[in-house]
Amino acid sequence: MAGDAARETIAGSVNAPLHVGIIMDGNGRWATARSMPRTSGHQEGLEAAKRVVRAAADAGVRYLSLFAFSTENWNRTADEVKFLMGLVTGYLRKEYPFYQEVGVRVVHSGNVKRLPRAVQRELSAVMKDTQQFDRIVVNLALNYGGRDEIVRAVNRLLADRQKSSTEQPRVTEAGLRKHLDLPQIPDPDLIIRTGGEQRLSNFLLWECAYAELYFSDKLWPDWDRDDLLQAVRDYGCRKRNFGGVR
Ligand code: FPP
Prior knowledge:
By secondary structure, the chain is α/β, with parallel strands linked by helices. The chain contains nine helices and six strands.
């Protein structure tokens, strides 16, 4: 089942989320609790991401943003950073059969120019390889920071203005939005954070203005299909006012 019908059935409401963002927290603690290196938690986190992408597609979610590496994550040990970058270069393209089966189009948000060349190449190849799939768009937020995205958007807007000789009107929200990383993707309806913490950690700051928030104590590698469906159902019961009156 796909599209609106699936959203209605699984969430019990036509108000199921079109765009879900996930802060996949708890990989390190999951591994440490098992006396394993933190990197094993990230490896398991990748498996959880695949389970959740499949569940989201089945629930009719059209856009899924996964916070895979933040602009602050460079402060981790060199080994952990290398491992996370290696997950992208080593596994991203190899998952092609998964993208094909589920219908996943991969896109990226974040500061691409500051990523290692090999990661840039891998991202651009996987985006090209999957551009024909249209069941769910998975946005990999990699070297992503909400403040960094807004600053880059402002600089792009200024650069565009410098190119133009005509007098420019004042900057508007819509005008700035056009310069964000993925202006064609609707704002997230629902942001999920796993692992027991309750904060946004610089994720999609502009786009989250009216997102509903859902926090789960479960560590990310333990997340499965039912956890995603539970979050979607919970969202289906929320009343959204967008600052107006219900
Ligand atoms: C946060 O947990 C997790 C990350 C910084 C990395 C997220 C990456 C994955 C889930 C791998 C999936 C990768 C792709 C490309 C989809 P943490 O390490 O901060 O955990 P802790 O709070 O327990 O230390």
